[in-house]
Specification:
88 residues; mainly alpha; 4 helices
Amino acid sequence: MTELTDALFRVAAELDEAAPLLNELDGVAGDGDLGVTMAHVARVIRAVTSGHSTDSWDSLLVLLGETLEREAPSTAGTLLATALSTAV
């Protein structure tokens, strides 16, 4: 499980770092809030991963997907939630 949680924390860090650029790029053709959404996704990843106590990758990915579905109800959040929930 450590490999997955380590990878998820690295993803969260990369999302935080990329947030300004994602906002800028999204602003060209969209509403400019993709970085805001991804920074929120990073917070959810950290919170869920930190509080997850089982050894099951499946349950962690489903929990992340379900939490993102509630917490990040944007197009990008919904797509990511669906991908995580169905990845198992």
